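Incident review: delayed structure delivery

Summary: a single-chain prediction request sat in the queue longer than the usual turnaround. Root cause was a stuck worker, restarted by the on-call engineer. No data loss occurred. The affected request and its eventual output are reproduced below so the record is complete for anyone auditing the incident later.

Affected input:
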Amino acid sequence: MQIANDKVVSIHYTLKDNDGKILDSSEGKEPLKYIQGKQNIIPGLENAMEGKSVGDKFNVKVQPNEGYGERNDQMVVSIPKTSFGEIKEINPGMQFQLNSQNGPVVVTVVETDDENVKVDANHPLAGVELNFDVEVMDIREATSEELDHGHVH
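Output delivered after worker restart:
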């Protein structure tokens, strides 16, 4: 069986940046399971999976526009510390969920001063080329319930 839309796919993967630093991996864990064609994974990886079979091992480089997007400098903003309510200690690297006009958004603190907090709403991997080492472990038909819900059960 080959990977095609509406198939449940199980993969083991290792994700690295261009310097070879491991960013994520399924090593030592259960394989990642997703439904092909349901946008459960980033487009560049999903496109590379099409037509593969159980046992296939391959590498794929995903450009930012098919991963987590390009960095957008307009998504780095300063907001008043008072927006964080009672939270006293705010340090670079911390993440918060804030409410925006478009709903909740996760931001990462970039820097702080006495009055303001500079946050970045870009995904941490925005603008990064992603290098995947993938092994296809299993492929099966998705159940009607999985297709209705759009994810693996």
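Verification: The longest helix spans residues 43-49.
Action items: add queue-age alerting; document worker restart procedure.
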